[in-house]
Amino acid sequence: MIEIIKDVNSMMRRATALYEEEAGVALVPTMGALHEGHLSLIREARNWRPVVVVSIFVNPTQFGPGEDYASYPRDFERDGILAEHAGASIAFAPSARDMYPEGFQTAVEVSALSAPLCGHYRPDHFRGVATVVLKLFNIVRPEVAVFGEKDYQQLAVIRRMAEDLNLNVEIVGHPIVRETDGLALSSRNAYIAPKERRKALCLYRALTEARAAVLSGEPDAGKVREIMIRIVRSTPGASLEYAAVADPRTLEEIQTIGGETLLALAVKIGSTRLIDNMVVSAAGE
Ligand code: AMP
Q: Is 186 in the pocket of ligand 1 (CB under 6 A)?
């Protein structure tokens, strides 16, 4: 049976006991509404350490004003069952009050990596993410933490934080899990009405066509960006936030393609914001 821990102090006591008995803990941070993408991270974590803690916390500080914090899908009962079947030993689901008691005022800022791409449209998002992940590391004391490449910028921010702050946690990235038609799994897909779902495929189509251009040797990043923009703009009901051709390490936009290239997209389908990405090696590299 999966152990459910709902408060920070109990989790800290449990984590200290696990640490002292050298149990070997891997953490999978999530916001719940678990799907196959999250479950693949739990299974990956099992390959790294015997005790997998999955945290389920819809973190208010990573949502901006007017974003979907209040309506974000929450189904804790179902999450517990799914996490257990995937091999998690502990589900840690604290309240916002417990994570951010009155007087809370500290934040972690990973400056340059948080600025482009999603950071441009969600200015405080990665500060909220980095801060809550550091808190989770301190509470759970994992040796390993597993994150999805679906949130590519988030993974880059967390890796940087772990290195800059000498955190004793190995950060593991795991590939994007997609539906058979290519749509990246996301808790936010639940917002998309069945008749709008086809529109959501424009992200995958745009990335696949852009990737094909890179693989066939297109050196001009602007042209590759245009391919993605054209596909999204020609999809009724889809509105483009950004289409980026960037350096996968710095996340800065590039002009000329050479070596590894990050293709990244944020698109709104109605009011639902979706992101997706691919990393491609340029032809001949
Ligand atoms: P979230 O609950 O959306 O905050 O995501 C929790 C973790 O699951 C993050 O590390 C995400 O990158 C990862 N994740 C979400 N969707 C996917 C997916 N389709 N494939 C792989 N990992 C994912």
A: yes
